[in-house]
Amino acid sequence: SDSLNGEVKPRILLMGMRRSGKSSIQKVVFHKMSPNETLFLESTNKICREDVSSSSFVSFQIWDFPGQIDFFDPTFDYEMIFRGTGALIFVIDSQDDYVEALSRLHLTVTRAYKVNPEINFEVFIHKVDGLSDDNKIEKQRDIQKRASDDLADAALEHIHLSFYLTSIYDHSIFEAFSKVVQKLIPQLPTLENLLNIFISNSGIEKAFLFDVVSKINIATDSSPVDMQTYELCCDMIDVVIDISCIYGLTDSEAGLPYDEESMAIIHLNNTTVMYLKEVTKFLAIVCFVRKESFERKAIQEVFDVRVEVQQNRELLSQRRWSKLTVTNGGPSNP
Ligand code: GDP
């Protein structure tokens, strides 16, 4: 759990042509900006914009491709950056002509692959909110084909690109980001297993692990997920953080009012109860429970942190005690 506490953060690079939507994605996903406000984001002339995301489980950086500046300038240490990068997200504006974007994508992918073949290449076909469903599929097919043809022409067809249709105006951007981040978490199978064990032993229907700041879904149990459930989780996180911001902050320097005491229970009108609880500095677990199960005592205890902590302490002291008795003469002499 140490690495989940932020020691080894997934590192992501966000790249693409200027005005493709990179800053908007960053602001909406990591800074709770509403999509309409991004219309007024100012264009920057910097090639590289750092974002350490110190309050999030994920750390990332943005790179622009402004027209004339030669991005592969020898003074720019891209090799070092590619070496430390887990995923490279390349944003393509689907509402604009994407010929140049595709040639930049090809250049970037081939350079990055040479430095670090372990990088996951993720292409966001972005701003699809303006397109009809048929048009979306058509655009994706076209972009995917051109990109793989370019790789095949360079005899690099073994480089794998993943494609996502995204927009900041719905949850697709959070969903795509979640998939990108999940691929970077080596403990994912373990986390999924733990969540499976957790739900099968507690009468909980579904459990999600979320990065609170970005609403990125880090892991979930292996039962199927629907978009609506996922959106409910995002809404609940927003509600909890908003209420905490208004009523929970005692020290104005403290940043996000989210700590080990953070928890919330919301009763939905369809006999489902939602439960949110802090797990680490960055992460929260969100569970769906049927009302009947929620009222049973066992579940109440799962959710009663004091009971849990107390039991853990007892367990720990028992372990210490038995270890001590063994070293002090064996179990025959307790
Ligand atoms: P950057 O230069 O790549 O950082 O691009 P910006 O984030 O500044 O975005 C450029 C413009 O695209 C802004 O006016 C945004 O409002 C708009 N934009 C960003 N994402 C979306 C999207 O998903 N849909 C639509 N329709 N517009 C978007």
Automatic annotation (TrEMBL):
Cellular-component GO terms for this entry: cytosol; Gtr1-Gtr2 GTPase complex; lysosomal membrane; nucleoplasm
Keywords carried by this UniProt record: Cytoplasm, GTP-binding, Hydrolase, Lysosome, Membrane, Nucleotide-binding, Nucleus
Positions spanned in the full protein: 103 to 436 of 437
Function: Guanine nucleotide-binding protein that plays a crucial role in the cellular response to amino acid availability through regulation of the mTORC1 signaling cascade.
Reactions catalysed: GTP + H2O = GDP + phosphate + H(+)
Listed name of the protein: Ras-related GTP-binding protein
Principal localisation: cytoplasm
Presence of the UniProt keyword Nucleus in the record: yes
Domain of life: Eukaryota
Subcellular location: Cytoplasm; Lysosome; Lysosome membrane; Nucleus
Naturally occurring in which organism (per UniProt): Gasterosteus aculeatus aculeatus (three-spined stickleback)
GO molecular function annotations of the record: GDP binding; GTP binding; GTPase activity; GTPase binding; molecular adaptor activity; protein heterodimerization activity
Entry's family note: Belongs to the GTR/RAG GTP-binding protein family.
